[in-house]
Amino acid sequence: MSRSYVAIYQNKKVNEFLYFDFNKNEFFSVAERKSQSTIFFTSFVSIVFYALMKNVSFGMTFSPLTMLAITGVLGIALGCVSIQLTNRAIEKGLEHRKEVVHPTNQELRQYLMEGKKQFHVLVFILLVLFFCVFLSAVFLYFMPQNVLMFLVNIGSWAISILVAWLIRPIQRSQTHKQLEGRLEKHSG
């Protein structure tokens, strides 16, 4: 689950990410594909899924805390499996898609400045996702027999864990500070 690189900047115009590999001490960029058809398909399937599942409930009675524990464990397990699968998929094609770059100090300053702004937005998104976990847990607590709330809570846990792993807020923040310190040494 460990990666030696972290994203520091995204060029949204060309949908390209700039990464810093702290083991190899190098920068590289990776162009990403746009997945608008996947988003459209997921939205459509979600609406159909909601229409089919909104009134379905478990036939047996579980206590609300038991349901929360079950969904938490299943969601975290699903999140860890998603991380493993995502990491395998990323590593499999990374060497073919990455391009080592050598930004100048001025370019690096610009990337770090823009990357910090993007980082704050990503942390906000991560906080919203964890708020969704909390909100779905509250709904599940009051509707423990509802299958839709059960699945939503599991999905919320899994997605939040996967997004936290992708964003890597602590490592990203440390990398920004490390690179800024390096720039200060070169300029001072």
Characteristic key phrases:
single chain, 188 residues, alpha+beta, four-stranded antiparallel sheet, 5 helices, 4 strands, 69% helix
Q: How would you portray this structure in words?
A:
- There is one protein chain.
- By secondary structure, the chain is an alpha+beta fold.
- 69% of the residues lie in helices and 12% in strands.
- It has 5 helices and 4 strands.
- The chain has helices at residues 36-53, 64-97, 105-142, 147-167, 169-187; strands spanning 5-11, 16-21, 26-31, 98-101.
- β1 (5-11) and β2 form a beta hairpin.
- α2 packs antiparallel against α3.
- The longest helix has 38 residues, at 105-142.
- The radius of gyration is 20 Å and the shape is elongated.
- The model has no long low-confidence stretch (mean pLDDT 86).
